Amino acid sequence: MNSYYGKSFIAINQITSSAEILQLFTTADEMKKNVEAGIVHEPLKGKTVSVLFYQPSTRTFTSFVAAAKRLGAYVIALNEMTSFSSVVKGESLEDTMRSIRQTTGADLIVLRHPEDNSSEIAASIQEAPVVNGGSGTADHPTQALLDLYTIYNKCGRLDNLNIVLVGDLKYGRTIKSLAQLIAIVSKKSKITFVSPEELKAPKELVKELREKVDVAQKTSFGHALEEADVIYMTRVQKEWFEKEGKLEEYERLRLKFIMTPQMAEKMKTDGIIMHPLPRVGEIMQEVDSNPRAAYFDQMRSGLYVRMALLKSILVK
Ligand code: CP
Asked: Is it the case that residue 1 has pLDDT exceeding 90?
């Protein structure tokens, strides 16, 4: 049974089992095979997918557009919602969503938006399924899917993983979604959060995770580097400091954790380094040639996983 069919995908806690994840990963593997072999596979022919972004994006936007087009959908892609749509004139998210459904006949809407509950609002006011392409500081569920797909392919398992999440754990949405997903689907795994004191993961999240998984919190790497299966670096998110008038704090914290080639060499030989990207100095470019650097493959996984998700939602 396809558990994604006809449903919005707005939060990572909608996933309830590893079986659901493995089902999606099997479809992602098929997508990868097709793309690599140049096989045209267009199960979404006749469907319309609207991709609406209210925040900047390189990877999520282009991979959703590419995924929908490769599957044969008609795609309406707007990545400048806050400068060239009626949002500039003060239109509400609710009215924009109603309008897009009417004007494009969208069968599915992908939304990135600065408000935490934006995808829930969008899904509540119109019938087409909504896929969350990143909402506020809370959730980036499709990023978590592609992150876990990368981990599964590189580490060869979902269980018994030692995962170290580093950087801006306060504002970063990718680590929150990935940590929640690990807690839901992975057995006997450990999550270690490494961040400056000011950028610690929210208390409620840590409390919720501790009910399901072993969690440690640190302000320095300690032995985490040597013990990790996965080091997941993240950017300190300037835009949220700017919004709160805290740019001095941003300058003080932005490069507290930098992955250097020497640090990468201290990791297990089969350990991997991940990053949702963009990076702004927290992984040195010299690390890119280290066999542990997995962030470019991670980015590529986004195409296959998003193809799998779109197909699963729109085709029975
Ligand atoms: N990882 C990620 O969300 O990147 P973009 O902001 O470029 O989409």
From this structure: no
